[in-house]
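With this grant's support, the team has encoded backbone shapes as discrete tokens. A representative record is reproduced below.
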Amino acid sequence: MSDKKWPAPILSYLAVWAGLFFFKNAWFTLIGFHIAILLILVFIRPNIPINLLLKSKHPKWILFSVLFCSTSGIGLYLLWNMFGIVPDLSAQLRTIGLHSSSWFGFIAYFSLINPWIEEYFWRGVLGSGTKNLHLVDVVYASYHALILWGKVHPLSIIFAVTVLVSAGWLWRQISRLDRGLLAAVLGHMIADFSILMVIRWMCL
């Protein structure tokens, strides 16, 4: 990651922290996170073409990404009782603005918009062509610890971040082999959707 790009993850982390712990609002967190990314993109002016988001040279990678990532929600559902999720999770989510009336809109925005922004940012602009694990995989995964803090057992946070490091690496490899970000975007999309739907279902 070049010196000019280093403020990018720092600003995105600050946006998530401020949204969750200062403003205490899920919508503010998500939109603030996206605004932070867009602002840093304006600052660093990446030479990664935006149409890379729509590119896929090999449809098999789209199929693999979507099918594999669809197991995210299934895994969360099956392992729900093993993650040490706090008993008052539903109440915590309500305090940050996720009421029954706002869940549908939040899931729709998170699932349909967030993957495009994140994949362009983490795998496109900050990404690396190396086959090995890269620092950006860890940086991408680690901000999720802020989201999970106080909601699950600390060991579950470590487990989740480890899984997300692997996911970041996998999406980066798919994008490298497929010469485009579309497969990663669609996989990210189904992962976000399935996970949020399980959380919504379990918190009814």
Notes: The mean pLDDT is 96. The two ends are 42 Å apart (CA to CA). The first helix runs from residue 7 to 22.
